[in-house]
Queue: 3 jobs
Job 1
Amino acid sequence: MFKKLGRNDECWCGSGIKYKKCHEVFDDKLAKLEREGHIIPSHDIIKTPKQIEKIKESCKINIAVLDYIAENIKAGMTTEEIDRMVYEKTTEMGGIPAPLDYEGYPKSVCVSINDIVCHGIPSEEEVIQDGDIVNVDCSTIYNGYFSDSSRMFCIGNVDPEMKKLVDVTKECVEKGLEQVKPWGFLGDMGQAVNDHAKANGFSVVREIGGHGVGLEFHEEPFVSYVTRKGTEMVMAPGMIFTIEPMINMGKADVYVDDEDDWTVFTADGSPSAQWEIMVLVTEDGYEVLCY
Ligand code: MF3
Ligand code: CO
C-alpha cells in the first residue's frame, strides 16, 4: 500500500499538480485491486510523461540500430561483425549499448542462432549460414534512459517449419499486445502468447521472460508467458514492459552454457525464436515504443 498523501499535496509523480487532480483516482483503483488480492505495481515503475519522452528518444536509437542490422545482415558474416555494427551505429547516434559490461556481459548485443534461445555472445568464430534463423537483441542507454527490442532474421533458404516458428513467434507478440490495456492483468497477455504458441504445436520457455524497462535495463515486473488470464500484476497507465517470448519448436526445457555462463540453449537441440517489443500502457490501451 502507498503512503496516503493529502489531497492538496503535490502528486508523487512529479507533475507539480495537486494529488487530487493527478494520481488520486489512480491510487484508489490500485488500492481496490490490491484488496481484491491482485498484485499491483509500485509507484517507481509508473513513468511520467517527461520520462516517457526521454525513453522514446532511446527507443529511436534502438530501432535505427535494428533497421541498420536488417539492411546488412547476411550469410558469411560473423556474429562479431554484427556486434561491431551495433556498437558503431549506437555510439554514432550518441547512445551506449546497454549489454556491454552489464553483469559481466562482454559484448554490445546478443545474437542467438537456431537452437540458441537467447544471450548468444558474438564471436569471430561464429559465421552466419544460409538457412539460419537469427535473433538480434539490441538495448540502448541514451541520456540514462533504456530501450530494448529484438527481431528475427531468416537468412537465405530457411526450412519451412523454422520459418513457421519465426512467424508464429511474431504472431504471439501481436496476440499478447492485443491484451494490453489499463486495469487488465499481465496474465491476460501471457495466456494469449501461450495459447497461440501451443495451438501451433510449439512450446514456451518458462525460466526467462520479459521485464519492466526504461529507467533501468531490467525493472519489475518479471513478465512470464506461462501465465493465466486474470493473474499476475495489474497493468496500469504509465507502466512500460517488454513482450519477448522465447518459443521452441520442440520441448520447452533450456540450459545455460557452463563455459560462458550466458548462452541459453534448448535442451533437445530444437530451434527457438524470439521477438521483443517495448510497450507502454496508456489511458485507453497501449503504445508500442520499440520493436
Ligand atoms: N536484451 C536482453 C533482454 O531482452 C537482455 C540481455 S542481457 C545481456 O532482456 F547482458 F545479455 F545483454
Ligand atoms: Co528484454
Job 2
Amino acid sequence: MNIDLLVRCSRELLGLDLSPETQRAFSIYADELLAWNEKFNLTAITAPEEIEMRHFLDSLSVLRAISLKPGLRVIDVGTGAGFPGLPLRLVAPGIELTLLEATAKKTTFLEHIVHRLKLHNVQVVNARAEEAGQDPRHREQYDVALARAVAQMPALSEYLLPLCRVGGKCVALKGESAVAEVRQAETALEILGGRVDRVIPVELPQVAETHYLVVIRKSAATPPAYPRRPGVPTKRPLLNRSHPEA
Ligand code: SAM
C-alpha cells in the first residue's frame, strides 16, 4: 500500500521523518492487515487513507505525550491488530514492547506481523489485562502502559495502573468523552495509585472528531487486590469508594 499521506502528515504534525526502511515496514503492515482482515475480521477500517490516519497516525500521536527513549519498557493493553503499540515501535525501534491481547486470533496475526517485519524486542502475550496485572512477570514492570478503545477510564485504569511501575506513565487514547471519563475515574485513580497529568487534544487530518491523550502518572503502588478477577473491572468499575470485590 502507498503510505505517502502518512509520511507527509507524520512530518507536518509530529516532526517525524520516516526513513525509507520505516516507510517500507508501514506499507507491509498495511498490506498484511488488509490480507488477514479478509479471514480474521481484525479491523472495520479498510480504506487505505483511513488506515494511514485512524490507525497509523493516531497511534503515532502518542509521541505528543511521551518520548519513547531506547530501553523504555512499554505495554499496549488490548492492542487488537497492534494499535497503538506497533506503529510506535516502528518509529522508536529501541523500546521493549509487549503487545497484550485477549483474543487468540488477533495474537496469531500479531505474531505473524512481528516475524514478517523482523522486529526484535517485541513480545506478544495472549492474556487478559486482569491476569497480566497479577502476574509478577508483568505487574509494575512497565515504564509506559498504553491503550486505545479498550474500556472506559474507570475500568481501563484498573487494567493499566497495575502494569505500570511507580513513576511510570499510562496513556489512554480517547474520543470526545475523554474529560467526562476522567472525572468518572477520580476514585479509581486514587485507589489504584494514579494521578491525571494532562489531557492533550489531538486533531488529525481527515478525522472530524477531536481525539484526546489522557496521561496518567503512577504516583503510588497499586494495592495487591487490584486488578480484580477477569470481567469484574468492567462489571463493577471503581466509581465509588467501595471495597474490592475479588
Ligand atoms: N487497541 C486496538 C485498536 O485501537 O485498534 C484494538 C481495539 S478493540 C476495540 C479492543 C481490544 O481489546 C479487543 O481486541 C479485545 O480483545 C481487547 N480487550 C478487551 N478487554 C481486554 C482485557 N481485559 N485484556 C486484554 N485485552 C482486552
Job 3
Amino acid sequence: MTAVTDPQAPYSLPQEFEDFRETIAKMVAERVAPRAQEIDETATYPRDIRELFASHDLMGLPFDAEHGGTGTGTLMLNIAVEEVAKACASSALILMIQELGTLPIKLFGSDELKERLLPRCASGEWSPAFALSEPEAGSDPGGMRTRALREGDEWVIDGTKNWITNLGVADFYICFAVTDPEAGHSAGISAFVVEADRPGFSVGKLEHKMGIRGSPTGQPIFDGCRVPAANLIGEVNAGFGVAMATLDRSRLGVAAQAVGIAQGATDYAAAYARERRQFGKPIAAFQGIQFKLADMESRTAAARELLYRACSKVDSGDADMGKHSAMAKLIASDTAMWVTTEAVQVLGGYGYVNEYPVERMMRDAKITQIYEGTNEIQRLVIARTLG
Ligand code: COS
C-alpha cells in the first residue's frame, strides 16, 4: 500500500479554494446582498453587479488563461456561483451564462472564433446567450424547427427560439439550427455564432417570470439573418453533440446555483429562528424547528458533495462527467426547492412576504428544477448510463 502523508488531503478542498470562497463571500455580503431584493422587485438586469464581477476577475472564471481567463477550472467557477447565489440567484446567473454561452466555442470553435470572442467575454465586456430551446422544442431540442441555409459564403438563419437567458443583453447568441432537414431527428443540426447587431436578428417577447427576475429571458428572432461561414461552430450537422457536450458541463452551474440558494435559505432561517421568540423562548429552542434546520443543512451539504465531485470529473475530463453533472443538478435543485419551502415555513407569515428574502429564494429555486434540462430529463440521462 502507498504511504498517505496527509489523510485529510484527498477529501478536502485545497486551501486556495477556501480562501477564494472567503473573498467572494465578503464581496457578496458587501455588494450583492444589499441589491438582491431590488433586483427581484424591479426585474432589472444588474449591470453594476456584472461590472463588479468583471472588476474582481470573476467573469474570467470560465476561461483558460490563453483566452484572458483565470484558467482555474470548473470547481473554482462553481464555488463563485454558489457564493453569489446564496444572496442573489439572478446575479449568479450572470456567471453561469458566461460559461453556458461560451462552452460551445471553447469546446468546438475554430481558433479564429476563440480569439474573436472568448477574451471579450473573459474581461466581462461581452456576454453571450445559448439559443437552443424553441416554443415547440424544449426537452426535445432534436425536434427544433429553426433552419439555416447555406448561400455562398454565408448561412441564412430563420426561426424563433424560446426561454433564452440574456435576451437583449447578449452581444452574441449561440444559435442551433437545422442544416440538413433530411438527416432525421437531432442529426442535421449545426451551431452558429450570431452577433446581436446582425440584420435579421431581433429581440422578441420578454417573459415575466416567477423567479430569477433580474435576468432577462425570452424569444430571440432570426429572420433571414445572415452570418459568415466562419461563424459555424465545429462541423456542419454536428451541432446536437455541441449542445449536449455543453450541457454536460454547464448543468453544474445550475447545481451550484441551487446549492447556494439552499444554503442562503438555511442560514437565513437559522438566524431568524434564534431571534424570533414565541411562547417565551426563541423558536430555535423547539425541536420542531431544530429538526427542520438540521435536515436543511444536511441535505444541502450532501448536494454540495455531489456538486464538487462532479466538478472534479469535468476538470479531469472523465468520460462519465455527464452522468455526474446530471446527478448533481437533479439532487441540488430538488434540495433547493425543498429547503427553501421549509425556510418559508420556519419564518411563517414573515416567510410569505417580500420584506424577507426566503420567498424570493423559493421562487428562484423553482427554475433550477427546470432549466438546462428538466429534472425528468436528468433522470433520463442518468438512467441511460445504467445499462
Ligand atoms: N455528448 C455528446 N453527444 C451526445 C450526448 C452527449 N452528452 N448525448 C447524446 N449525444 C449524441 C448521441 O451520441 C447521438 O449521436 P449519434 O446519432 O451520432 O450517435 C445524438 O447526440 C443524439 O442522441 P440521442 O438519440 O440520445 O438524442 P435524444 O433526442 O434522444 O435526446 C436528451 C437526448 C433527451 C438527453 C436531450 O434531448 C436533452 O438533453 N434534452 C434536454 C435539453 C435541455 O437541456 N434543454 C435546456 C436548454 S438550455 S436552458
